Amino acid sequence: MLSAVTSVRRREWPILLLGAGYFFLLLASYYILRPLRETVGTSGDSRRLALLFSGTLAVMLAIAPLFGWLVNRFARERLIPIVNRAFALQLLLFAWLWSRQDEPPAWLAAAFFIWVSVFNVFVVSVFWSFMTEVHTLEESKRTFGMIAVGGTLGGIFGGWITHTWAAELKHANLLLVSVALLEGATWCMLAIARRRPAPARAPSPRPEDEEAGGIWNGLMLLRRSPFLRGVALHVLLATAIGTILYMQQAQLVREAAPDKLERTALFARIDMWTNGATLLVQLFLTSAVIRRLGIRFALLAQPVAAVAALGLLALHPVLPVLIAIQVTLRGLQHALTRPAREMLFTEVGREARYKSKNFLDTFAYRLGDQLGVWSFDALFKALALPLGLISACAAPLGLAWCAVSAWLGREHRRRTAEAPGESTGADR
Q1: Positions of the chain with pLDDT lower than 70, given as ranges
Q2: Please, are residues 212 and 351 in contact by the beta-carbon 8 Å criterion?
Q3: Alpha-carbon distance 53 to 55, whole Å?
Q4: What CA–CA distance (Å, rounded) separates 281 from 336?
Q5: What is the pLDDT of residue 215?
Q6: Within 13 Å, how many C-alpha atoms sit on residue 248's CB side?
Q7: Where are the domains of the chain?
Q8: CATH superfamily for domain 11-198+206-416
Q9: What totals of helices (H) and strands (E) does the chain contain, helices first?
Q10: Which residues contact 9 (CB under 8 A, 6 or more apart)?
Q11: Is 129 left (phi over 0), alpha (psi -120 to 50) or beta?
Q12: How many CA atoms lie less than 13 Å away from 322 in the CB half-sphere?
């Protein structure tokens, strides 16, 4: 019956539902933590927030060799549980430290902000790397939108838990709930791996498909491949613009809600509104847009909206407008841009899928944070520009993002036309 009303084929439903469950539990785990992180981030001025983002980038650089070593040493059935459970153990440590005091000291709050900022991009990057490995390109066009729906529902659920129970459960107990959800996500991943064993891949002439095996091979593949460099620039520009908007949001929320618990609840509400809007787009538009209008259109939707949003914010730099913009842009990101960008990796090898992609999703993502956060700090603090003018200054980045998105869509079409018979998923 489901196959009759959707484009998903009958044999694809078990993996789709497990993938959606995996993403649901993963993002529910993260969205419990996200409002707590945002509260920590708005506890100081923009310079302190900029330093926290710099600390996040430094940690990303430090753990990149470790992740590369794990990719070399372990198959995905062991790699992903190791990554998830290592994060779960660290989260248990935070819960224990937090339970010993009502108000965490400054060093613990800063460490938690950096940890969550690393956790969210790492586990989501590994999730999508795994999804691109167990799906072909054609399957991804039919199923990625609905898998993303699972993540959106998880985001709504996690945000609801924090919004509803933050005062009763306290921070330490919320972290324990997050740990339990993360373990559930790991079990879903293992169930998928049993149904879709890792396929043997034939050698490919593309530089991003080469399997050199070194810890830093993902970075080397990035250096040799114009296509991967284009994806890196796409991530960098998207994150820079998102961080500039995030910094403006932090400034306006700090002024509107001085109480920390009130700020936590407000951030949780914003997350729930965002995920609600995302859910509507994912249910009714994502798969149809990608199948009928193509990946190029899906990649362009958010950048074009971002340019318009920055223009609107330049004219009306107030919190309600900014919240509406954040809900719209983040909704487009989760419903169209992110699934479309992940589909680009269904056509590459394991080294590019796990190492280069992880480098893009972590280091390039946080490097974009640096570009956005220090640009905002320089414009807002050093030059004392009003928030509206800062939005106008960010508009050229949005135009550059549009150009890169258009090029990636064209390049993806060319690559798939050159190799129409290739299949990168598991044998069917």
Answers
A1: 1-7, 40-46, 102, 166-169, 197-219, 258, 260-261, 284-285, 347-354, 379-382, 418-428
A2: yes
A3: 5
A4: 8
A5: 44
A6: 31
A7: 11-198+206-416
A8: MFS general substrate transporter like domains (1.20.1250.20)
A9: 16, 0
A10: 3, 142
A11: alpha
A12: 21
The pLDDT value recorded for residue 421 is 44
Beta carbons within 8 Å of 363's beta carbon, 6+ residues apart: 57, 60, 61, 64
Contact 410, 226 (CB under 8 A): no
Find, among 354, 359, 83, the residue nearest to 211 by Cα: 354
- The residue among 210, 204, 174 whose CA lies nearest residue 94 is 174
Q: What is the value of pTM for the model shown? A: 0.69
* Sequence letter at residue 264: T
What is the model's pLDDT at position 424?
Answer: 38
Structure tokens at 314: 């330049």
Length of the chain: 428
Torsional sign, CA 2, 340, 133, 192:
negative
What does the alpha-carbon distance between residue 409 and residue 119 come to, in Å, rounded to a whole number?
29
- Give the pLDDT score at 307: 92
CA dist 63 and 55 (Å) reads 13
The pLDDT value recorded for residue 269 is: 76
Instruction: Tell me what pLDDT residue 368 has.
Output: 79
Q: What pLDDT is stored for residue 268 in this prediction?
A: 73
Per residue, the 3-state secondary structure of the chain, as one string, reads: CHHHHCCCCHHHHHHHHHHHHHHHHHHHHHHHHHHHHHHHHCCCCHHHHHHHHHHHHHHHHHHHHHHHHHHHHCCHHHHHHHHHHHHHHHHHHHHHHHHCCCCCCHHHHHHHHHHHHHHHHHHHHHHHHHHHHHCCHHHHHHHHHHHHHHHHHHHHHHHHHHHHHHHHHHHHHHHHHHHHHHHHHHHHHHHHHHHCCCCCCCCCCCHHHCCCCCCCHHHHHHHHCHHHHHHHHHHHHHHHHHHHHHHHHHHHHHHHCCCHHHHHHHHHHHHHHHHHHHHHHHHHHHHHHHHHHHHHHHHHHHHHHHHHHHHHHHHCCCHHHHHHHHHHHHHHHHHHHHHHHHHHHHHCCHHHHHHHHHHHHHHHHHHHHHHHHHHHHHHHHHCCCCHHHHHHHHHHHHHHHHHHHHHHHHHHHHHHHHCCCCCCCCCC
pLDDT tens, 49-65?
A: 778 878 888 888 888 77
Residue corresponding to tokens 């991530």: 235
